[in-house]
Each structure stands twice: as structure tokens, then as C-alpha cells.
Amino acid sequence: MPYLTDSADVRDAAELIELFGDDAGIEAAARADASRNLGNHLHFCRWRQIERLILLLAQDRALGTRH
């Protein structure tokens, strides 16, 4: 499960989905890799979590427990 720090992470995930469609996760991974290459570990971790969120949103069924 992704760890989200604030609503901006959800907004960025939704924006990537809107712009890149099925390739949104790939774009988030590319942004994470670019951040890592620049030595920015905070943005690397953030984009990896957004990538995980995008993959989670793409599922057609509920994951985890339901109440």
C-alpha cells in the first residue's frame, strides 16, 4: 500500500492518469528515476509512492479489507 503524505500526491497521480492514461505509472517511475539521478531522495520516494498509488487505482477490485 502506498504511503501518501498529503492530498497533493493524489492530485499528482490523477494528473498523470489524465495526461498519460495507461502509461501514468511508467511516467511516475521515470520521474522517480530522474529524481534519484539528481540525488533527490525525497522526491524519489514521493514519486515511487505515487507510482504505487496509480497501480492501486488501476485495479478493478478492492484490495485489503472492506468494512
Automatic annotation (TrEMBL):
Protein name: Uncharacterized protein
